Structures are given as structure tokens and as C-alpha cells.
Amino acid sequence: MASIRRIFIANRGEIAVRIIRTARALGIETVLGVSAADADSLGAKLATRAVVLGPAPSKDSYLRVGTVIEAAKGTGCDAVHPGYGFLSENRELAQACADEGLIFIGPSPDNLTAVGDKLTARSHAVAAQVPVVPGGTVETLDDATALAEEVGFPLLIKAVSGGGGKGMKRVDDAKSLPAQLDMAMAEAEAAFGDPRVYLERFVTVGRHVEVQILSDGDTVLHAGERDCSVQRRYQKVVEEAPAPNLPDALRQGLLDAAVRYATHIGYRSLGTVEFLVDVERSEFYFLEMNARVQVEHPVTEAITGLDLIALQIAIAEGNPLPMTQDDIHLSGHAVECRLNAEDIARDFMPSPGRVTQAWFPALPGLRVDTHMQPGAMIPPYYDSMVAKLITWGPSRDEAIARMLTALDVCVLEGITTNAPLHRAILSDPAFCKGGVDTTYLGGLLPKLGENA
Amino acid sequence: MADLTRADIDEILKLVDSSDFDELKLEMGDLKLELRRRGAAPVAPPASARAPAAKAPEAVAAPVVASGGGSEIPAPLLGTFWHAPRPGADPFVKPGDVVQADTVIGIIEVMKLMNSVEAGIAGTVIEITAPNGELVEHGQCLIRIQPA
After folding, report:
1. pLDDT given at position B43
2. Nearest-neighbour CA in chain A from B50: distance (Å)
3. Chain A residue closest in CA terms to B77
4. Which is the catalytic residue, given A226, A268, A292, A402?
5. List of chain A residues with pLDDT < 50
6. pLDDT value of position B29
7. Catalytic site residue A292?
8. What is the value of ipTM here, to two decimals?
9. How many CB atoms lie within 10 A of CB A196?
């Protein structure tokens, strides 16, 4: 068991500040590795020390494994926290930390391999008896007809060697299967020189629900689920916990499956197992496991009272989890809005620039994770998220009401943000009813245009 | 603005000697005065947030280096800065050396990869600013050169 004294943070923005918050609470020093563009950021000022890794582009700074290791060693750190994105699920960094005697605050290199690519992750799911999207490879029409009976309609035909939508066909019923299959196989042959195709169930109404996992390597616990169905182009916009209007049997099935998956791969750290919930069939399928802290972890913290970063650090130090499943109580409801520097009136164009005013007062039930302050510069090189507003309430309605208040009260000026989009979502009857699917936001956007 | 007299400098030296500071930089109009306690490591440029705790004062007179500033040669990448090609060898450059733009002034090691650093400008080396064998940040001043 090793006690961490100084953490090298290989990240930026709000998550760097979030990690510093917990490190300060634990009496751990921090060194933040920044790019030249972030040298004056809030994280750089709050960390015990900041070092410039390289110039602004991520590939020359935040994504350089060797530079991160060199900087961590050169500044006397004993651990590396990778945050999310960037190098957070990079096996090379985890391995380099192990080789250099640094504690990687995350899972082992083997864990990262197990969840790293979709096929390996899927085969682990099958082995752990965690449901995956039904489907399989077919070579003849007879194969296809037999499999289609199992999978059901609608289904997707994908080229085995494919990608980019080439050779992909949606089939709505058995009678159009032969013609579509012929076409898909011909296209696959022409495009990839390989006529083999893959049949997969097409989920028309799906929700994105994920389970927070905590594991010390011996004990695997879950901290409830989060619903992240409000997405635009696969980017999460609003998240909440617990998932609203999810039947109890389905919820329990998800939680158990996530624990089973993490146990099966011998996972050790903080992680999240993502599922697609098939609303029409009341089933769920494994999507992937994220071997890191998630952007939306605060909604789980809000309903559990846990400090997930502190637990992640404790696990990395080799400590056993200080609780059992029965000690994790869920209370109330939490919602998170990702505030991005983007202009929804101009097709979500990023709007970097200098913040003139930033004011997030301590409203009841409000938590703000941000690196914004008056004068902060939002550089054009990285993602556009500038703050996360998280509200908690005894009920979902109250959490939503508090978020609407927060959106009215908080001030972030000098840049354009997507706050109007959040107001529209949180005032929309369909969202307020609870349980929207992943196509919801795409359908809401055109209506916003009409109202504007 | 009156020029500094020798007496003024002596007075400043006494002040520095009786303080915890290792280094003093004074700018008055065109005049720049830099004082550094002997043996003191030069302080990294502003990018590194916190300076290390000041070392205990030593009873030696600080050298007076009056300079016109010169050009700071920044580290092109983060890593360990080496003054010489291998331990015990002569340094690539020392104060007073005349360098060309392509003269190698040191090595920055990143994960056992040696990256040679060139002066970038022609001139005379004034000072080796970054200590040997220590971490330098991207953009940190390595040496200062009086352009030719």
C-alpha cells in the first residue's frame, strides 16, 4: 500500500480543477501539466505547481506519453491522474507509469486492453453472460433467414470488413430480406473485396443508461445508474441519476450485469459500463466499458454523497473499498447540464474567446464544476465544454426546477454558450415526463428553430 | 532618472545579503541590474507557478551581472536539460562563447530520447540559465545570448 503525496494531473479544464479539489481535501500536492495555451488557466493557478508540457495542439502536449512521464518524474510526483479524454484510457501511459514506478490512478494495462476495442469488449460481455445486441455473421440467404428469426425486425445488415456506412442496410421485414441481403453483399464485395455481412438487431427506441462501478479488485460495487439519453451527434448534453421511469426489473438487471462484467475482467478502479436500453422490448445490451472517471460523475456523487475521485485515489493506493453495497444509499435526483461555448443559432459553431464575467452563486442544491473565471480564455484547440451545472433535489421535478433557476441566475459573459438549449430541454414536457430516448434531442432542435 | 552609483549597488548588495532572497532583478529605464547569490539556482520563468522555498542565506558576496538582457533561448519541448553530451564531458557552450544559429547549446532528454537544441540565433552566450540535469518546461529560458 502506497500513500500518494503528489499527483501529476495529465489533463486540463474543469476536470483538472475537480481533481485538485479532492487532492487539496486529502492533503495531496498537485502538479498540473498544461499546454502553452492553458498556462494561465484556473487549474494552473490552483495546482501546487504547473509545468508547460508543450505548445497548444493536444498532440504536442496533452497527448504525449513520454512528456507526461518525464514531467511527472521531474516534478517529484508519485502518481498520475489522467482525468477523462486525452490519455485517460491509453494503455501505453498506464504501462509507462508501471515501468517508471509511478502510480496510475486508473485501471491496470490489462484492464485497459480488455475494454479497449469493441470486439474484445463484446466477447468479454458474452463470456460474462451480459447481453449484447443480438446478431451474427451470415454467408448465405438461408443463414440470414434463420438468424433474422432470432434477431427480429427491424435489423441492420453491415459489412464485416466495412465502416463508414458502406454496405449498411436497414431491413424492416422478412420479405425484403433477400433483396437487401443481395445488395449488401454485392456492395460489401465491391467496396471491401469481402462479401461477408453481419446482421444486427436495430433498436428503434433506445435509451443510453450506464452504471457506475467501483472496484478494489476484490469487491465490485455499483453506485447506481445514470441516464445520458439526451445527446446530439453522440455527444451527451444532459445527464441524470437515477434513470427516470425505468422498470425496476430492468434497472436491477443493468446493475447486476455491470457488476458481473467488471468482475469477469478483474477490473480494479473507477469505471462505467454503458448499455443501450431497448425500450420497446424491455431489454438491454452492453455497449462498452469506460475505464476512467466520466464527465457526468457528479450526478452520481450528488445522489450518493460519495467523492468518486477520492475513492479512485484510495483504490490506486491499494486500499480496500471502505464500504459495502449496503452502505451506498441513493437519495433524491440529480441533473447535469453541460455548458458548452457554442452558438446553437449558428449550427452549434464553437465560440472561443475571453470570458468577461463568470458568476455561479451557491444556490440551494447547485454544484458547479468549472474552470471559468472573469478573464479566462477559452482556447480554440480543445473541446468546448466550459462548465457543468449539477442540481440535486429531493425529487426529479425539484432538481429540474433548481436547474432552471440556476440557468437564470448564473452569469457567463463574453462568450456564447448553449444555455438557451438547456433551458429549452428542461422546460420541454417530453423531457420533464422522463425517459426520453437517444433520438429525442435531434427531434427537439428543429422545433427550437421554429420558436426562435 | 539618476544612474546607479557604485555606492548604491553596494547598498543593494547589503540589502540582498541580509534578506532571504537569492536573486534580484532591477530595471530602471534602460538600465537592467541582475544580482544572484553565488550557487543559487536561477529562478524559472513565470510559467512555473510557485518558486521553491528560498535557500538559507550564504555569507558570500553576490556577483554583479549588469547586462543588456540579451535574447532568451526557450526550451522547444519539456524534458531534462543537459549542458554536455555525456556526464563529465565539456559543456556544449559556456558564457562568452560565440555561437551560430545552428550551434548545439544542449540536449533535452524525453524518455531516454535525446533531442539536441540549437541556438536559433547567432551571438555571444551571456548566461546558461537552466541548470544541468533538471526538468525544463516547454518555453522555459535555457540560455541567454547577446545577438551579434
Report:
1. 47
2. 6
3. A54
4. A292
5. 452
6. 67
7. yes
8. 0.70
9. 15
User: What are the residue ranges of helices labelled H in A152-224?
Assistant: 177-192
CATH architecture of the domain covering A135-201? 2-Layer Sandwich (3.30)
A279-294 pLDDT, tens digit per residue, is 999 999 999 999 999 9
User: Smallest CA–CA separation between A373 and chain B, in Å?
Assistant: 18
Architecture category of domain A206-451 in CATH: 2-Layer Sandwich (3.30)
Same fold, A135-201 and A206-451: no
A39 touches chain B (CB under 8 A): yes
Contacts across the A-B interface (CB distance below 8 Å):
58
Instruction: Name the residue ranges covered by the structural domains of chain A.
Output: 6-105, 135-201, 206-451
pTM for the full predicted model = 0.83
Domains recognised in chain B with CATH numbers: 1-66 (no CATH), 69-148 (2.40.50.100)
Residues in A closer than 8 angstroms to B140, CB to CB, are 52
Fold assignment, A6-105: Rossmann fold (3.40.50)
Helix axes A109-116, A118-127, angle to 10 degrees: 100
The residues in B 22-81 lying below 8 A from A, measured between CB atoms, are 47-50, 77-80
**A47 contacts in chain B (CB < 8 Å):** 49
| Three cell numbers, residue A110 | 490489462
Measured CA to CA, the distance from residue A195 to residue A249 in angstroms comes to: 41
A123's grid cell: 466477447
- A268: its cell numbers: 480494479
Structure confidence at residue B8 as a pLDDT band (50, 70, 90): confident
State the DSSP H helix or E strand holding residue A308, giving kind and residue range, or none if neither.
Answer: helix A308-316
A155-165 pLDDT per residue, tens: 999 888 776 66
